[in-house]
Design a protein that fits this description.
The protein is of the alpha+beta class. The chain contains 3 helices and 3 strands; from the N terminus they run E-H-H-E-E-H.
Length: 84
């Protein structure tokens, strides 16, 4: 039986209009049949979601959190994303 490992990755977002729009679009469109199919095809990801971190000093998004749970070690997780 493999261990299930959590991972939360913080990705800072440039404070430009284009980067802000991209972050918002990714957030709004993450939960869709294509994303689910792609994650399911990896067969190691149990759970995945993203969350926007608000910029408290200005309007917009400071960063994106990628929150997942996966089987195996970090190398197998990264390899699964690289291959897909």
């Amino acid at each position: 039986m493999q261990n299930v490992n959590p991972l939360t990755l913080y990705v800072p977002i440039l404070q430009t209009a284009e980067a802000q729009a991209s972050a918002q679009a990714i957030y709004e469109n993450f939960n869709n049949p294509t994303t689910k199919t792609n994650l399911d095809s990896m067969a190691i990801v149990h759970y995945a979601r993203i969350a926007l971190v608000p910029n408290t000093n200005a309007s917009g998004t400071l960063g994106v959190l990628v929150i997942t749970e996966f089987d195996g070690n970090m190398n197998s997780y990264l390899q699964a994303f690289w291959n897909e």
